[in-house]
C-alpha cells in the first residue's frame, strides 16, 4: 500500500469514530462599514507603526512626489512595469528629475545578478489594501513579476484609496479569491524586518529596507 | 561545542531533562535572555488584542481548526487534487525518514548540490539538514535566527525566535569566527552582513525548501507567514521549491485563513500581521518571468494520524505553532528551549513530542509543568494543554489493560512499588477501621518521622504529623 493510502486509511478509519463538525461564526471578524477617510487614516497609522511611509497624492501630482522620494534616496534607477498605466505614464512623461527607468521584461535568469546588485528602487501597482492591518495586496504577474517587490532596497507601491478594504476577509470576498488564485499572491505590510538578534528590530534583512506607499485619493 | 549537542535534537538525550534544566536555572545569562524576551512577548500580545472580543475570536479559531480536522481525509484529497491541477506535485510521507528521502530524490533528480531553506519546524522534526548533509547536499538556513543557530551548530530554542538564547555579543563573535564579519555590537551591521552573504546563496541555490503555515484545499494554496522576506526568496529564486508540512495544516478555504491569521501573528509576536503573507498556488507559468519551475508539497504524517485516533488527544493537532504557550510558560521561561532536548519545546512540545518519540523517551515531558494553566488560557485555538498533560501523565504510568495503549511508550514510567503504595492507600481509605488504626498509629509514633523527605525537603521544611488525628479531635469536641 502506498504511503498516501496508508495515511488516508488511518484517518478514515479512526478508532474514535466520526467527528462532529462545529459551526464557524465569522462575525467576530466583521468591522463596521468604515468610511474611506477612516480606512485611509487607519491604513496609514498601521503601516507607519511598522516603519512604512505613506504619501497622500492625487492623479496629477504623484509623479512629483515619486521624483522627490527617489531624489532624497539618491536612487540611480527605478524598475517599472512595462504595460501597467504607472509604467506607461512614467515612460511618457520624459522627466528629467526621475532616475533611469528599467523594465523587467526578460526572464530572471538573464539578469539576476543585475537585479540583485544594481537596481535601487522599484514601483508596482497594488490590487488594493487592507485598512485594519495596514497591508497591501499584490498579485504579481509577468508585467510586475514576483521579485520586483522583493529584491530592490526600496519598494514604492501605488494604492488607490478607492480600493482600500476594511479587513482581509472583506477583501478576499469582494475580489472573489475563492474562484481561483494566481500562482503567487501577497499581503505586504511594511519593509522586510527581523528581531532575531536579541529582539532588536533591523530593517531590510532580506527584502526592501523601505516601503513607500503613494495613496492616490 | 559538546559532542552530544551536535547537529540536531535527536542526538540530545531527551531523558536528561533534569540535569539540563538544573544547569539552565543556574545560568544567569539564559535566565535573563528568556525572561526579558518572554516579558516583552507577553505584553505585546496583550496590546495586539486590545479592542478585540478575544474569547469569541479564540472560539472561532478553535472551531475552524476542529472543522478542518473533522474533515481531514477529505480535505487532504481535495488539497491534493487542487494542487495537482495547479501544477504542484504532492507527495505523502508516513514518517520523517520517508519525507527526507522524498526531498533527497527531488534534489538528486535535479542534480542539486545546494538547498536554501526558509523556516520550517517540520524540517527540524525530520532532521532534514542532517540527512541531506550525509547525502552530500548542503542545506543552508536563511531565516536570520535559524542561520545563526546553524552557524553555531545548535538547534532552535524557540519555534518563532530560534536564536533567543544568544545575545548580540555572542552572535557577533560567532559570525566573526564563521563568516569573517567584523566584530560589532551593531545589529544593523550584523543584519546587513547576513543579508549580503545570504543573497549570494539565494542566487546560487538549486532548491528552496520551506514550511507551510496553512494549506488551503479550496484553491490549492500554500500560505507562508514571515517578516524577513527569506521565505519569499526561498520560494521564488531557486528553480525548484519544495514545501514540507504536517498533514494537519490543511484548512477548507481562504476564509478560514483570515481567522487563523488574525490569531497567529498577534499570539506569536504581538503583530497585527507579519510583513509578508505569501500565498503560493502554482509554479511559474510559461509567460511569467520569475518563480520556481517546479513546486512540490510533501505531506508528512510522522505520528499525527495516531494522535488523530483519540478524541481527547486529537486537540493537539489544532495547533497553529504560534508559540504563545511557551511565551507564557513559567517553566519554559526559566529553563529555556534547549533544556527540553526536543524539536518543539515548551507546553506544545510537552503534549506533541511524546507522540513523536514515545512516552519512554519523552517520559519527563508531561511532568515538566506546574499545571498553572497559562498555556491553555492564551492558546489561540483553545487547546486544553493542561488537560492533555494530565492525560499523558496518566498514560505514562497506566498499567491496567482497561485503557488501550494510545501513545507509544504507554506505561513507561510505571513503577510497581508506587502502584502498590497507591493500591494500599486506596484500600486503607476505603476501610474505616483500618484508616482509624493507621492514622492513630501514625500520630503515636510521629517522633519517628524522618526530617528529610527526598527532593521535597531540599527547599522546604518537612510537614509534621499532628499529635492527634482529626477523628480524635472531633470526638473530644463532642461532635
From TrEMBL, chain A:
What InterPro entries does the database record attribute to this sequence? Answer: FTHF_cligase-like_sf, LUD_dom, NagB/RpiA_transferase-like
Q: Which Pfam families match?
A: LUD_dom
Annotated transmembrane regions: none
- Chain ranges of the LUD domain: 40-216
Top-rank taxon of the source lineage equals: Bacteria
Q: Which PANTHER family match?
A: LACTATE UTILIZATION PROTEIN C
Q: What is this protein called?
A: Lactate utilization protein
Q: Which organism is it from?
A: Marinobacter adhaerens
From TrEMBL, chain B:
Q: What keywords were assigned to this record?
A: 4Fe-4S, Electron transport, Iron, Iron-sulfur, Metal-binding, Repeat, Transport
- UniProt name for this protein: Iron-sulfur cluster-binding protein
Organism of this sequence: Marinobacter adhaerens
**Residue stretches making up the 4Fe-4S ferredoxin-type domain:** 310-339
Q: Name one Pfam family in it.
A: LutB_C
Example GO molecular function: 4 iron, 4 sulfur cluster binding
Q: Which GO terms describe its biological process?
A: lactate metabolic process
Kindly list any coiled-coil regions of this protein.
none
Q: Which PROSITE patterns match?
A: 4FE4S_FER_1, 4FE4S_FER_2
Amino acid at each position: 500500500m502506498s504511503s498516501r493510502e496508508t495515511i488516508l486509511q488511518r484517518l478514515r478509519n479512526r478508532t474514535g469514530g466520526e467527528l462532529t463538525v462545529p459551526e464557524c461564526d465569522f462575525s467576530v471578524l466583521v468591522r463596521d462599514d468604515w468610511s474611506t477617510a477612516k480606512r485611509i487614516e487607519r491604513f496609514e497609522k498601521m503601516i507607519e507603526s511598522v516603519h512604512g511611509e505613506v504619501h497622500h497624492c492625487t492623479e496629477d501630482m504623484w509623479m512629483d512626489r515619486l521624483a522627490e522620494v527617489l531624489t532624497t534616496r539618491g536612487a540611480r534607477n527605478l524598475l517599472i512595469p512595462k504595460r501597467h498605466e504607472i509604467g506607461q505614464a512614467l515612460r511618457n512623461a520624459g522627466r528629467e528629475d526621475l532616475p533611469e527607468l528599467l523594465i523587467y521584461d526578460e526572464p530572471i535568469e538573464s539578469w539576476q545578478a543585475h537585479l540583485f546588485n544594481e537596481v535601487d528602487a522599484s514601483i508596482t501597482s497594488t490590487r488594493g489594501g487592507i485598512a485594519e492591518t495596514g497591508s497591501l495586496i499584490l498579485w504579481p504577474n509577468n508585467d510586475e513579476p514576483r521579485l520586483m517587490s522583493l529584491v530592490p532596497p526600496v519598494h514604492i507601491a501605488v494604492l488607490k484609496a478607492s480600493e482600500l478594504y476594511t479587513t482581509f476577509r472583506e477583501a478576499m470576498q469582494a475580489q472573489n479569491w475563492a474562484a481561483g488564485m494566481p500562482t503567487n499572491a501577497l499581503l505586504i505590510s511594511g519593509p522586510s524586518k527581523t528581531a532575531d538578534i536579541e529582539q532588536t528590530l533591523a530593517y531590510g534583512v532580506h527584502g526592501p529596507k523601505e516601503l513607500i506607499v503613494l495613496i492616490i485619493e | 561545542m559538546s559532542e552530544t549537542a551536535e547537529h540536531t535534537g535527536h542526538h540530545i538525550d531527551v531523558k536528561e531533562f533534569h540535569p539540563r534544566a538544573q544547569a539552565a536555572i543556574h545560568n544567569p545569562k539564559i535566565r535573563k535572555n528568556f525572561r526579558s524576551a518572554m516579558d516583552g512577548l507577553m505584553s505585546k500580545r496583550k496590546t495586539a488584542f486590545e479592542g478585540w472580543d478575544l474569547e469569541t475570536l479564540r472560539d472561532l479559531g478553535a472551531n475552524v481548526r476542529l472543522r478542518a480536522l473533522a474533515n481531514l481525509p477529505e480535505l487532504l484529497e481535495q488539497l491534493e487534487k487542487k494542487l495537482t491541477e495547479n501544477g504542484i506535485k504532492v507527495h505523502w510521507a508516513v514518517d520523517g525518514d520517508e519525507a527526507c528521502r522524498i526531498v533527497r530524490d527531488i534534489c538528486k533528480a535535479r542534480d542539486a548540490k545546494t538547498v536554501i531553506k526558509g523556516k520550517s519546524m517540520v524540517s527540524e522534526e525530520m532532521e532534514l539538514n542532517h540527512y541531506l548533509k550525509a547525502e552530500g547536499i548542503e542545506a543552508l538556513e536563511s531565516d536570520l535566527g535559524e542561520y545563526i543557530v546553524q552557524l553555531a551548530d545548535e538547534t532552535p530554542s524557540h519555534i518563532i525566535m530560534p536564536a533567543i538564547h544568544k545575545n548580540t555579543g555572542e552572535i557577533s563573535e560567532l559570525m566573526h569566527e564563521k563568516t569573517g564579519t567584523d566584530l560589532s555590537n551593531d545589529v544593523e551591521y550584523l543584519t546587513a552582513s547576513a543579508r549580503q552573504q545570504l543573497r549570494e546563496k539565494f542566487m546560487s541555490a538549486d532548491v528552496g525548501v520551506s514550511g507551510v503555515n496553512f494549506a488551503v484545499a479550496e484553491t490549492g494554496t500554500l500560505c507562508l507567514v514571515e517578516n524577513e522576506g527569506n521565505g519569499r526568496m526561498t520560494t521564488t529564486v531557486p528553480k525548484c521549491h519544495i514545501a514540507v508540512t504536517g498533514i494537519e495544516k490543511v484548512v477548507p478555504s481562504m476564509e478560514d485563513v483570515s481567522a487563523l491569521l488574525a490569531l497567529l501573528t498577534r499570539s506569536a509576536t504581538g503583530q497585527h500581521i507579519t510583513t509578508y503573507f505569501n500565498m503560493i498556488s502554482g509554479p511559474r507559468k510559461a509567460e511569467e518571468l520569475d518563480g520556481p519551475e517546479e513546486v512540490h508539497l510533501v505531506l508528512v504524517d510522522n505520528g499525527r494520524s495516531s494522535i488523530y485516533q483519540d478524541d481527547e488527544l486529537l486537540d493537539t493537532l489544532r495547533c497553529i505553532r504560534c508559540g504563545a504557550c511557551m511565551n507564557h510558560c513559567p517553566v519554559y521561561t526559566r529553563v529555556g528551549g534547549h533544556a527540553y532536548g526536543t524539536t518543539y519545546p515548551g507546553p506544545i512540545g510537552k503534549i506533541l513530542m511524546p507522540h513523536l518519540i514515545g512516552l519512554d523517551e519523552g517520559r519527563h515531558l508531561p511532568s515538566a509543568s506546574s499545571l498553572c494553566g497559562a498555556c491553555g488560557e492564551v492558546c489561540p485555538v483553545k487547546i486544553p494543554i493542561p488537560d492533555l498533560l494530565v492525560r499523558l501523565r496518566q498514560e505514562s504510568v497506566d498499567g491496567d489493560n482497561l485503557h488501550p495503549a494510545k501513545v507509544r511508550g504507554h506505561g513507561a514510567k510505571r513503577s510497581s512499588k508506587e502502584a502498590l503504595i497507591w493500591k494500599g492507600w486506596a484500600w486503607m481509605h476505603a476501610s474505616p477501621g483500618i484508616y482509624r488504626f493507621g492514622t492513630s498509629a501514625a500520630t503515636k509514633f510521629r517522633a519517628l518521622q524522618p526530617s528529610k523527605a527526598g527532593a521535597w525537603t531540599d527547599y522546604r521544611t518537612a510537614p509534621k504529623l499532628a499529635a492527634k488525628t482529626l477523628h480524635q479531635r472531633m470526638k473530644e469536641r463532642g461532635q
